[in-house]
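Input sequence (570 aa), recorded before submission:
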Amino acid sequence: MKNKELADLFDKMAGILEFKDENPFKINAYRKASRILGDLTQDIEEVAERGELKDIPGIGEGMAKKIEEYLKTGKVSKFEEVKKGVSDELIAMMDIPGMGPKTLALIHKERGINNLSQLEKAVEDGSLIGLPGMGEKKVENIRRGIQLLKQSKGRMNLGMAFPVAKRIVETLRERTGSEKIEWAGSLRRMRENIGDIDLLATGPDHEKIVHTFTHLPEVKEVLASGETKASVIVEGGLQVDLRVVEEGSYGAALQYFTGSKGHNIHLRGIARARGIKINEYGVFKGEKKIGGKEEKDVYKAIGMDWIEPELREDRGEIEAAQKKNLPRLIEESEVKGDLHVHSNWSDGSSSIEEVARAAQKKGYQYVAICDHSKTLKITHGLDETRLMKQMEEIDRINELLKSFQILKGTEVDILSDGRLDLSDKALEKLDFVVASVHSGFKQDRERMTKRIIKALENPFVHVLGHPTGRLLGARDPYEVDIDEVMEAAKKYGKALEINAYFERLDLDDIHCRKAKEMSMRVAIGTDTHHLDQMWMMSLGVAVARRGWLETKDVLNTLSLKELLKWCHKK
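Predicted structure, token format:
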């Protein structure tokens, strides 16, 4: 889809304008458009064909014209105008996490830095120190940002890859008539970052599958194409590789190409001890093929239960399968509500009623409106007076709804000293309180840990939002003793959030599993700001599954009555 290309283009335009110290309103308009298009699940070309660009919340007439121009010509003339005088190398440096266009403009002007190699040299020789606002800590942050940028090259975020792969697989199944087409590799294991997208297929006509794949509308460039293999670049610059195998080997190949490497090596070692050989072509006892058509054949041949793809990281899943002791992982269909959604009362794009109707369409019993609190002025956060008015609005809408309830909530800021941004008197009246850190990320480990634990002590807090504050590929977790925080959360009866927003996925799978071992509940919230983001519940559930979580471990698998009982147990 062209969604990502346009989102990246508008983000670049905002960065260049900020670099040039242009009008902040223009900068924010492009950033907002970038965010909206990046989160949009509909194909922007299809939206444009229907003449509905201006119906997208936040997309005005001027931005709609630029989108139409790009879809017709592959360019936006305004971008060419904006970038005049700014080299491609400088523009590329705006991708460094934590750098920011203003900082880049400063070091470009004062130190004549024009490219990444010059910046790395300046970081190493200390020549940046002494510039306005540029101390040792800031330079160290730039160094870490350069490392993050290099690490992310050639990798893509799960939230970007998953919808692309899903759409391609669904289209291939529909056009070829073959149901045995699946994504494999780290994407099937739902890792938070993946390399290329790997697809595996089988069917009576291999050439038809390959031909259909290389002629999909998403394909921008065919890198290679043969009778059983093909590699393409799709819109957004993602590489997708297809392999077509014989039907009798499909299951074995799917297991083999799903991985992980550690899981497969461990599995093959067990098989060899039993005189069995496992490879991508099947399962063999001597020269005799004893399985391979179905993936379960591989595990059954060596006496163990089938292992869900998300668990295949060689973290004890094989031993659990041998003992018939694998967890029954949570399914998305068991989620009864979204516990972190923003409305247009703060920085969301939709009304409370629109959020509720969208949640009802997903089959939910409830949705928690958790708008920002007052300290986050950039998000139009709510003070106590506006929060009370919002509660009245929720009461009014709840009277209109059947078999569904909007929960009165907030995402309250944890201030730098651990106090909360809203009074206890206000928090006490709410159904659901998420407490989150949104500022002061540079506090040392001890102060940050104490700050969060103090917030967890508050009797009206239910959940710690995005507990480590990371942004994948853009911001490291803040310095915090997460183990101590988890102990405190358990002590005070709080849940930890899996923030399912694709750039966060925070809590991660490792700490989800630790929460399970500690008998703590986890809440999944999409942090939705636009209705098109509600699909990200799939990502949150994937993180939970990778963390071995079952239905009983996740707060929003409770019914409305059970959830409210849990919230008001204090």
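Checked by second reader. The chain has four domains: 3-152, 156-244, 249-322, 332-567.
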